[in-house]
Task: structure prediction
Amino acid sequence: MENPYDRTKQDFGNAIGLEHLNVTIPSQRLASEFYLVGMGFTRDPYLFPGNNNMWVNVGKSQFHLPTGDPQVFRGHIGFVVPDLEALAKRLYGVKKALDDSKFGCKEHNDHIEATCPWGNRFKAYAPDLEKFGPVNLGIPYVEFEVPEGAADGIARFYREVIGCITCVENGDGRAARVMVGQKQCLVFRETDKKMPEYDGHHLQIYVSDFSTPHDLLDEHDLITEESDPFQYRFKDIVDLDTGKCLFQIEHEVRSVTHPLYGRHLVNRNPEQTNRNYRINDDEWNWSLPVPNERIQTTAPQAAPAASAFAKRRARRLAM
Result:
């Protein structure tokens, strides 16, 4: 029968969620000033309540910030916030507390650029259903700077080994785009700049087919940790023909049977204070309402047998 829908629009590929980014930081106090006060994110109230690690909720994703020597992503992290003006106000408000660090913020036409006290770069955007999906708070992408000539091999690696949907784009530099969830992606943009050495930071993704990528990674001797029944790790993204390492970023790969999968993450309303307190306005809903396309599109297409069945049913009711 005729199909009026593009079914590929609903495809995710094997990676179904970018859950957290992990960097070590030297000071939990400065991290609190930047991530909680400045950015307006929320400290996980249930796990790691001490002063040696902090999990920070950003919609349905997180930053993990254990204490250690500073680690820096080689690129930048994109996120969505409900209100850019409010974000700018908060960031300017923590400037004095972060004066003796690498902290910075700059407003652009469509986003705000911010730098954490140790040099991690962020770009904040307003909600956009088409670009970022139905979220007003979240991490839609991480963009890495990679050596020239690496984009095609990186796209192929994620497509053939991890099972992701990928493409290679030409625009502001050649880039591999890898889907890792609904409107979540990793972008690997080629640059001729000298790359800093990889320092051990990592990201975590969930995959629906857990064993096939593991077996393919193992064939290439790329597994770096057999963590537990629900998780393994790898670091090198390689050319599948030559074995040459194209880029390094540790991946924590989890199955959807992992005990933390789908865990509810508390997000606070950063504009709520004791001075302007509003009842029932403490927690923030990170999702946006989504139009019901079943209502807005054409009527369901019935198979030929369905109309005959309906006619027989009508005749029975008429008897």
Remarks:
- The mean pLDDT is 91.
- The helical segments are 28-38, 84-93, 129-132, 151-162, 211-219, 293-296, 304-318.
